[in-house]
Amino acid sequence: MESGPIVRDADRDDVMAICRFGEEHVRAHYVPLIGDEEAARQVRMWWNTTNIAGAVALGEVVIAEDGGRLAGVGQRGLDGGEHVIRKLYTLPRYRGLGSRLLEVLIGRLPADAGRVYAEHLVADERACAFFEREGFTVERVEPSGVVRRVRGR
User: Fold this and answer.
1) How many whole angstroms separate alpha carbon 153 and alpha carbon 144?
2) Do strands 61-66 and 69-79 pair parallel, antiparallel, or not at all (unpaired)?
3) What are phi and psi of 8, to 5 degrees?
4) Sign of CA dihedral 126, 129, 132, 134
5) Is 35 helix (H, G, I), strand (E, B) or coil?
6) What is the pLDDT of residues 80-139, one digit of tens each?
7) Packing angle between helix 36-46 and helix 27-34, nearest 10 degrees?
């Protein structure tokens, strides 16, 4: 019997739990960085049932579970022709799990994907440090305060 979190592809039965994860945990993470109103808007925009269900149907979402409870979520996707990590969040007590989620997401990319991008807020110092540790370098900083990073495979 496996102990600790397991990482697996999300399925349609996970959609509501992923949406709740965004509402309960991602919003709280963003409030000190961008304020309550913008944090709520971001969650409504990116963690809604339609968005999550579509990404799950495309096989773009992985989750980490510990004892049947969601401990983390990762999502990849395409932006034009570029592969992008769209979501990568873990509960605070599972911080080390982000690396596992990231590697599973990258492992799901097509063999010919030479690089992967990740975006995060400039104000998110934890995300800055995490992506630097994972070998991502800053490509540009958007006027909106979003950092775009790139890493070769």
Assistant:
1) 27
2) antiparallel
3) -150, 165
4) negative
5) coil
6) 999 999 999 999 999 889 999 999 999 999 999 999 999 999 999 999 999 999 999 999
7) 140
Does residue 73 sit in helix, strand or coil?
strand
Of 67, 83, 87, which Cα lies nearest the Cα of 25?
87
Q: What are phi and psi of 80, to 5 degrees?
A: 65, -125
* Element housing 105 (H / E): helix 97-107
CA distance 67 to 106: 25
DSSP code at position 81: T
SS3 16: helix
**Residue 23 structure tokens:** 């509402």
Q: How far apart are CA 125 and CA 133, in angstroms?
A: 12
- From the list 55, 50, 38, 44, the residue with the least C-alpha distance to 22 is 44
Q: Give, as one character, the DSSP assignment of residue 2.
A: -
pTM above 0.90, yes or no: yes
Q: Which residues does residue 115 pair with via DSSP β-bridges, in sequence order?
A: 152
